[in-house]
Design a protein that fits this description.
The structure holds 2 protein chains of 2 kinds. Chain A contains 13 helices and 12 strands. By secondary structure, chain A is an alpha/beta fold. In chain A, strands 2-8-7-6-5-3-4 form a 7-stranded mixed beta sheet, sandwiched between helices. In chain A, α5 packs parallel to α6. The two termini of chain A are 40 Å apart. By secondary structure, chain B is α+β, with helices and mostly antiparallel strands. A 3-stranded antiparallel beta sheet of chain B has the order 1-2-3. In chain B, β2 and β3 form a beta hairpin. The two termini of chain B are 24 Å apart. The chains are: A alpha/beta, B alpha+beta. The interface between A and B is medium-sized, with 23 and 29 residues.
Chain lengths: 400, 143
């Protein structure tokens, strides 16, 4: 399989592992394979690597090592954080949760279940047309029986960055636990749980050039965390199951690298991102989704009127460009992205979306190929679209 | 792309019969932009035979491929045969569609029926009404 000529522009879905992360994990697959719970030297060597990784992870997000719990992925972290805070709240008679309409499904579906099966009440806040939640609106939504506020750090589809520090401050003041799904943010933009008033935070390694199948949950000291998987005493009783040492070590190596290079990566990505945005927004009847400024350095999400996203993706794939139409997690469904609907786009426009998410491995040449291909494919699909023809003949009004 | 068969990809990449027929004898449009699929079929009919057929489609890869395949299957055929075309036949000719994309083949069948009905209506041709049941909006769109 040779994918070397591909333009990989779907880094919000997953990333290529960094060489550093691969090199870091290999010894723990090969020579240092012990179980960290074993007392002999081979086990204890693995334990040391595990704890060193925990310390590295903690320092990258401004936490203490004892506040980091390793999980299998971002979704698991989200599930555990939300259920734990909800169940602890319920013990005190608090069964109200505040979140937003454009969270990842790992959050939304967990909330839906709590609502349906356990009688919790969930308030989903408006994310406005720019895709940004207002801290004052979080404040206004907090009730005496609110046990949890969960708002994502940066949106996975449109890349908008939320005022997490302000939301955290509002929650701290009200004494409500604040969780943030920071899967798209960690390793990409500055995250500091202490400075940003975060009680619980979910992260996932494969979004910052670490391996798939490993994540972490930060839980502030003093905030109780209930186990989601019962069993052995790993992770101080909060997450049973033999630790995935190799991937944990690789995740820490990847995050250290990402944080060390963050300033340089950001400068490079913002330049590439903005070049693509300014070229693609020249396509008539198109729009950039989400706030122009408060966005992740590598994420672009656009809508093109009169076409449907899947055809666009397949034609881009034929030209060697890997992109996405909204979240990869929803690409089995016929409904348009819940994120684009949440920012107020009509269904017919939301169907024609394209997400391009870059990383520091992308080049100027990649950007050029995207800038050349997208307008051609959009024009080609519009030329066979009855919707576009109606718009052009003036039988329907352009929405964009 | 393992999502679709080679046949689907071929008809998606090189769709047959794309376009409009300005003096079409029958036009059928089905689907809904809200739901992400619209198919419009143009027929040129002579002596009860489909002389030419063109389509315009707004939709996913399988919607475009289904339109292309369906138009190929009815081109040059008498109307009676075109009316017998089922969505299953379209899907089979494409070597299958993923379960959640079967509705695309349904749209193709319905677009052709709608175009033939339009031709009958325009020309005052008598037909059996039961051949053209009113499509159920929800069913049509979400299988």
């Amino acid at each position: 399989m040779d994918f070397s000529n591909k333009v990989y522009a779907d880094n919000a879905a997953t990333t290529k592992m960094s060489k550093t992360a691969i090199a870091a994990m290999l010894p723990y697959l090969d020579t240092c394979y012990g179980n960290p719970s074993s007392l002999y030297e081979l086990g204890q060597a693995a334990k040391e690597a595990l704890e060193a990784a925990r310390a590295d992870m903690a320092s990258c997000i401004g936490a203490d090592p004892a506040e980091i719990f390793f999980t299998s992925c971002g979704s698991e972290s989200d599930n555990q954080a939300i259920r734990s805070a909800a169940h602890i709240g319920a013990l005190k008679g608090k069964k109200h949760i505040i979140s937003t309409a454009f969270e990842h499904h790992a959050v939304l579906h967990t909330l839906k279940k709590l609502e349906k099966e356990e009688g919790f009440e969930v308030t989903l806040l408006d994310v406005h047309s720019n895709g940004i939640v207002a801290a004052e609106e979080v404040k206004a939504a907090i009730r005496p029986d609110t046990c949890l506020v969960t708002v994502m750090f940066a949106n996975n589809e449109i890349g908008t960055v939320q005022p997490v520090k302000e939301i955290g401050a509002v929650c701290r003041e009200a004494g409500v636990t604040f969780h943030t799904d920071a899967v798209q943010a960690v390793g990409h933009i500055p995250v500091n749980v202490k400075e940003q008033n975060i009680d619980m935070l979910s992260l996932s390694a494969h979004k910052f050039h670490g391996p798939k199948g490993i994540g972490a949950l930060y839980c502030r000291r003093g905030v109780r965390l209930l186990p989601f998987i019962d069993g052995g005493a790993q992770e101080r009783g909060r997450r049973a199951g033999t630790e995935n040492v190799a991937e944990i070590v690789a995740m820490a190596a990847a995050l250290k690298e990402a944080c060390a290079n963050m300033a340089g990566n950001t400068a490079k990505l913002v330049a590439l991102r903005d070049k693509i945005i300014s070229a693609l927004t020249k396509i008539p009847h198109s729009r950039l989704n989400g706030d122009r400024v408060h966005r992740l350095p590598g994420t672009i999400n656009m809508c093109f009127e009169g076409i449907e996203g899947e055809g666009l993706l397949l034609h881009l794939d034929d030209r060697g460009i890997c992109a996405s139409s909204g979240s990869a997690c929803t690409s089995g469904s016929l409904d348009p992205s819940h994120v684009l609907l949440a920012i107020g786009l009509p269904h017919e426009v939301a169907h024609g979306s394209l997400r391009i998410s870059l990383c520091e491995y992308n080049t100027e040449e990649d950007a050029e190929r995207i800038i050349e291909a997208v307008p051609e494919v959009v024009a080609y699909l519009r030329n066979m679209s009855p919707v576009w023809k109606e718009l052009e003949r003036g039988e329907k009004k352009h929405l964009l | 792309m393992a999502l679709y068969s080679e046949k689907v990809m071929d008809h998606f990449r090189n769709p047959r019969n794309v376009g409009e027929i300005p003096d079409a004898d029958g036009i059928g449009e089905v689907g809904n932009a809200r739901c992400g699929d619209i198919m419009k079929i143009y027929l040129k009919i002579k002596d009860g035979v489909i002389e030419d057929v063109k389509f315009n489609t707004f939709g996913c890869g399988s919607a475009i491929a289904s339109s292309s395949m369906a138009t190929e299957l009815i081109k040059g055929k008498p109307l009676s045969q075109a009316l017998e075309l089922t969505n299953k036949a379209v899907a089979e000719a494409l070597d299958g569609l993923p379960a959640h994309k079967m509705h695309c083949s349904v749209l193709a069948e319905e677009a052709i029926r709608a175009a033939i009905k339009d031709y009958y209506d325009k020309n005052g041709i008598e037909y059996d009404k039961s051949l053209f049941p009113e499509p159920d909006e929800d069913e049509e769109i979400h299988e």
